[in-house]
Structures are given as structure tokens and as C-alpha cells.
């Protein structure tokens, strides 16, 4: 796994993860990028959102949006498969040399070895002790890319993995509804055992909770109120 390679290259053995990541001011990269005339398609908030905005702007200015999106998508898949990676990136014991090695490893995995925008961005995160925010930045950047393409995210959460036919039926039904706003849907599926059964469908700022757990909660509330 990448976390093991990163730890080995950085020479990490035992380390403590801080309870919180500092959220101080952003430095040159983020500040300069947000001052450009290219603006992100939607407003994002939080430190990870600010970095995602800056990366979007820098990528758009250099006509490398697609390349950066592809690289970050590859990194995003790594985070999903390797939950220890964020823990390592948050390690307070990382030296300058450690961070340089980590950046090289991340670039290699992302397939962006020769992409200066990605390299500069990762370097900025490292300099500002924000490598631990990378996973969140990737998620926010995907939101920007979807908005740029005129897409709207359709999130489907179920207790067990759904087959393609079920996903397609839901996508078709939602696409014909007012919830889609006439936009192309970007389907994201999630497995969450504690929903017990049924589905939770989220699109834009709308949530349709058809889960068994939700029904049980409503029943429990009704019984409690009746006592």
C-alpha cells in the first residue's frame, strides 16, 4: 500500500497523530491563485475548499484542468483503499526531507510526475503543513469539476452494494424528476451497513431517506411521544 511506501521512504516508525490540524492562513500559492481572473464555478468553504479553489484556478489558467482532475482522481482511489495514508500525512514528525519524499511518491501514483501545477500544489501543502488535508481537497476539487461540466452529484447510500441494474433504475428515475434540474448526473454509490436496508438518495441539497433505520427511528419517536 502507498501508506507503507510513504512511511518507508520518509523513514517513519512511531508517530502520534495530532487531535486537530491547524487551520491558519494560506500562503503564496493559494493567495496568488485566488486573485486570478478565473473563478471556480461554485463557492466552497473551509481550508480544504480554499485550497481546492486555488488549485482549480491555477489549473484553469494553465489549461490543465483535465490532467489535474485525472491525477487527483487516481489519488482519491488510493485514499479509499489505504485509510492509513491520511494518518501518515498528518504525522507531526515529518521533516522537510520526509515531505519531499512523500511528494515524489504522491506524484508518481497520480501519474503527474511532469505536471508542475500538481507538483507546486503538493509542495505548498507540505510547506504549510497541510498534507493531511489532501483527501478533503480532492473531494472538493471533484465538486468543482462536476460543476464545471454542468453535472450534479447523485449519491446513493445502501446497506449493501447495489448491482448495476438497480443503480441505473435509480439514475433514470431521478434524471426524469425535478431534482436533476436538467443536469447530467454524476452517480456516487456508498455502502453504509447501519442504514439496515432501503436507500438514502442525495442530489444537490435534497435528501430522500428511504432507509429502514430512518423508518425505525420515526417509529421509535412516535412510540416515545405516545407514552
TrEMBL record:
Keywords, alphabetical: ATP synthesis, Hydrogen ion transport, Ion transport, Membrane, Transport
Coiled-coil features, chain-numbered ranges: none
InterPro entries for the chain: ATP_synth_OSCP/delta_N_sf, ATPase_OSCP/d_CS, ATPase_OSCP/dsu
RNA-binding among keywords: no
GO MF terms, alphabetically ordered: proton-transporting ATP synthase activity, rotational mechanism
Keyword Ion transport: yes
GO (cellular component) term, any one: membrane
Homology family: Belongs to the ATPase delta chain family.
Protein name: ATP synthase subunit 5, mitochondrial
Organism: Talaromyces amestolkiae
Amino acid at each position: 500500500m502507498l501508506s507503507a511506501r510513504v512511511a518507508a521512504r520518509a523513514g517513519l516508525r512511531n508517530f502520534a497523530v495530532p487531535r486537530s490540524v491547524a487551520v491558519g492562513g494560506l500562503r503564496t500559492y493559494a493567495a496568488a491563485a485566488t486573485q486570478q481572473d478565473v473563478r471556480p464555478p461554485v463557492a466552497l468553504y473551509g481550508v480544504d475548499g480554499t485550497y481546492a479553489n486555488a488549485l482549480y484556478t491555477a489549473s484553469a489558467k494553465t489549461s490543465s484542468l483535465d490532467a489535474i482532475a485525472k491525477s487527483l482522481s487516481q489519488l482519491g482511489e488510493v485514499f479509499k483503499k489505504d485509510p492509513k495514508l491520511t494518518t501518515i500525512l498528518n504525522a507531526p514528525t515529518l521533516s522537510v526531507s520526509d515531505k519531499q519524499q512523500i511528494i515524489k511518491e504522491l506524484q508518481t501514483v497520480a501519474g503527474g510526475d511532469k505536471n508542475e501545477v500538481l507538483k507546486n500544489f503538493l509542495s505548498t501543502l507540505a510547506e504549510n503543513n497541510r498534507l493531511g488535508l489532501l483527501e478533503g481537497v480532492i473531494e472538493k476539487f471533484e465538486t468543482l469539476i462536476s460543476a464545471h461540466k454542468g453535472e450534479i452529484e447523485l449519491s446513493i447510500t445502501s446497506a449493501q452494494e447495489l448491482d448495476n441494474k438497480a443503480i441505473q433504475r435509480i439514475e433514470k428515475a431521478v434524471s426524469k424528476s425535478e431534482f436533476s434540474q436538467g443536469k447530467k448526473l454524476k452517480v456516487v454509490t456508498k455502502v453504509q451497513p447501519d442504514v439496515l436496508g432501503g436507500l438514502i438518495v442525495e442530489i444537490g441539497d435534497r435528501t430522500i431517506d428511504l432507509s429502514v433505520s430512518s423508518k425505525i427511528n420515526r417509529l421509535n419517536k412516535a412510540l416515545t411521544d405516545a407514552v
